[in-house]
Design brief:
The complex is a heterodimer of chains A (140) and B (94). With 140 residues, chain A is mainly α. Chain A contains five helices and two strands, in the order H-H-H-H-E-E-H.
Chain lengths: 140, 94
């Protein structure tokens, strides 16, 4: 039977961006409020899963041509890079540093290398979740 | 005053959730159960909001949006399984 998913697909096109925006917010707010890389990554993969539900595997691969294996590798490199970068400054492994900067548009910011570590967690969580879902989902 | 109102609202929503749980257990067909689970998710949103009022904190605001998103994705997945038999298609026929 041929089904027509026009309501689901149109709703997905609107809701998807809200979910991605919320996940980015939760990722960046993790330092001061509840959230962080883990929840943000799970929410981003939830958005991709909603895309997989509304469309099919081939379309989503065309929209997001991402190899999730490389995504996990990049996340682990971010994590170990922020850890090993501390060794260059003659401090113990995984010592984090922060600085206050004044940017022209964004204003007063406190940049912390823990955010880069969190970006690694984010990438690993998205990659692992999407690999699990896609491996179970495809039917060969 | 506010505490009494919030507490009674939590009690009323809990009673509504118990009715929905009855529908999940008893519901003769699977779509009944799916709709009841979706409504339980919405009631959870209300309960979290009321509890964050009662505790006088805004730390649970993210949880409210998160439950809403997860209930939506879960319900869509369930209904797609009920309609097509697969959740994620390899290639859509069009």
């Amino acid at each position: 039977m041929k089904t027509n998913d026009v309501i689901l697909q149109t709703a997905t096109k609107v809701v998807l961006f809200l979910i991605v925006l919320f996940s980015v917010y939760i990722f960046f707010a993790g330092h001061y409020t509840p959230g962080g890389g883990f929840v943000g990554g799970l929410l981003t993969s939830g958005a991709i899963i909603l895309l997989l539900l509304a469309f099919d595997m081939k379309t989503v691969e065309k929209i997001l041509p991402v190899n999730y294996m490389y995504m996990i590798a990049a996340g682990l490199l971010f994590a170990i890079g922020t850890g090993a970068g501390a060794l260059l400054f003659n401090v113990p492994f995984l010592t984090h540093a922060f600085t206050d900067v004044d940017l022209p548009i964004l204003g007063h910011l406190s940049l912390h290398t823990a955010a880069l570590f969190d970006l690694g967690v984010f990438l690993v969580v998205v990659g692992v979740t999407m690999i699990i879902i896609k491996t179970i989902g495809e039917d060969d | 005053m506010l505490n009494t109102v919030v507490l009674s609202a939590i009690l009323i929503i809990s009673a509504a959730t118990i009715g929905l749980i009855y529908r999940v257990i008893k519901g003769p067909t699977t779509p009944d159960r799916v709709v009841a689970l979706d409504a339980i998710g919405i009631n959870l949103v209300a309960i979290v909001a009321l509890i964050s009022i009662a505790l006088n904190t805004s730390a649970f605001v993210e949880v409210i949006l998160l439950i809403g998103i997860l209930a939506f994705i879960g319900t869509v997945a369930f209904s797609k399984y009920l309609e097509k038999g697969v959740i994620i298609e390899n290639e859509r026929d069009r």
